[in-house]
Amino acid sequence: MVKVLTFLGTRPELIKLAPLIPLLYQHCDHRLVHSGQHYSYELDARFFAELELPAPDYTLNVGSASHGEQTARMLSRLEPILQAEAPAVVIVQGDTNTALAGALCAAKLQIAVVHVEAGCRSFNRAMPEEQNRIVIDHLASLLCAPDEVAVSHLLAEGIPAKRIALVGSTAIDACERARPFAARSRILNRLEVEPGHYLALTLHRAENTTPAILPGILAALATLAEAQPIVFPAHPRTLAALTAQNLTLPPGIKLCPPLGYLDTLRLVGAARALLTDSGGLQEEAAVLGTPALILREETEWHTLVACGFHTLVGNRCETILATAVEALRPARLDALHANPPAMRGGASKRICTLVEALMFAPPAVAAAP
After folding, report:
1. Are 77 and 147 members of one domain?
2. Which runs of E-coded beta strand occur in the chain?
3. Closest Cα to residue 265, out of 184, 163, 339?
4. Which H/E stretch holds residue 317?
């Protein structure tokens, strides 16, 4: 039985790996390590409970810090665990500092790296996430790509096809797995909103909380909120930026604390549309049949924009309003809600099968089967 260690440390990683982790425990000798990149395990325990996952075998509690210091803490604390456990495979997900540290530490110890959600590109090299995902992809032994576009990016960068597997997205599996539980959420009652009569908002990316950008986003939201209320589960970073910049939320925006995964799914699934700068929520919104307006200049999920279900609206007041008026047109939203994109599930099972196939490879595996 192949020994596998999964390294995660943020809530998006936890959510997207939730359908895969139980399979790994069933079919592999599995260890789970929590870096604590954003939160301690204690603060993430609610998510573990909601997703019915066992507690991690190791917690590193690295906490927030500069990119260099945070990554260094992870490397120094993860290396002795990898040396003691000696897994054949280390699994990382996405584009976080946790994923980067896990891939780098494993690769230097000649342990095979499996990258879940490989090949996604925004083509914005100023984003730390873009830098991370590129480095991880070039370190990985097996690159699990969510769609054909991601595969094309990897091939264009010279990564051999034999290391790439088109598996789909585990976020789709996670959302489908949690859907029945999310339906029981009482979040709409608590917030006193009616399904289909509000917009949901998430806003947390560092570039969108700067003094050069955040006031313009708020000005655009003020106009949009005149037509229908906007529900905003506020990220701590955004709240801190509002305070530091002496900004107030416009009327029509209903502020609430950060939500758990199931409440978030219920809120997004019942919204008329989603306004977001999140990567993961773009996929989840599509699974739930909710069109999204992406408050960024680029996205990693090109296919959802290309098919017309999601819309890039930028992060400047003028571009947001110029694009959002058409994107939120009632007839258009009705048509999109009636015909959501087909989302391919089953990625978690495909990845587990590929990982199991590594069991006969030597410890220093150089390429995927």
Report:
1. yes
2. 3-8, 29-34, 58-59, 89-93, 112-116, 142-145, 164-166, 199-202, 230-233, 253-256, 273-276, 292-294, 311-312
3. 184
4. helix 317-327
Read off the tokens for 91.
């699994």
CB within 8 Å of 235: residues ≥ 6 apart: 202, 203, 204, 258
Helices (H), 86-227: 97-108, 128-139, 148-156, 170-182, 187-191, 214-224
**Would you say residue 194 has pLDDT above 90?**
yes
Q: How many domains does the chain have?
A: 2
Among 200, 262, 265, 268, residue whose Cα is nearest residue 234:
200
Question: Are the beta carbons of 156 and 327 closer than 8 angstroms?
Answer: no
- Residue 206: CATH number of its domain: 3.40.50.2000
Alpha carbon distance 311, 302 (integer Å): 10
- Supply the pLDDT for residue 63: 84
CA dihedral 199, 202, 206, 212 (to 10 degrees): 20
Structure confidence by residue, pLDDT tens digits, 155-185: 999 999 999 999 999 999 999 989 988 999 9
* CA 113 – CA 365 distance, rounded (Å): 9
* Whether 287 contacts 178, CB under 8 Å: no
Domain of 308, in residue numbers: 186-338
Which residues neighbour 313 within 8 Å (Cβ) at sequence distance 6 or greater? Answer: 293, 294, 295, 319, 320, 323, 324, 327
Mean pLDDT of all residues in the chain? 92
Half-sphere exposure of 103 (CA within 13 A, CB side): 25
User: Structure tokens of 228?
Assistant: 């229908």
CB-based burial label for 199 (10 Å; 0-12, 13-18, 19+): buried
Active site residues: 204
> Of 123-127, 160-164, 351-355, where does mean pLDDT reach its minimum?
123-127
Dump pLDDT digits (tens) for 224-250. Answer: 999 999 999 998 889 999 999 999 999
Instruction: Answer whether residue 368 is part of any domain.
Output: no
Minimum mean pLDDT among 34-38, 90-94, 163-167: which range?
34-38
User: What is residue 88's three-state secondary structure?
Assistant: coil
Closest CA to 95 of 65, 67, 57, 76: 67
User: What tokens does 275 get?
Assistant: 């306004």
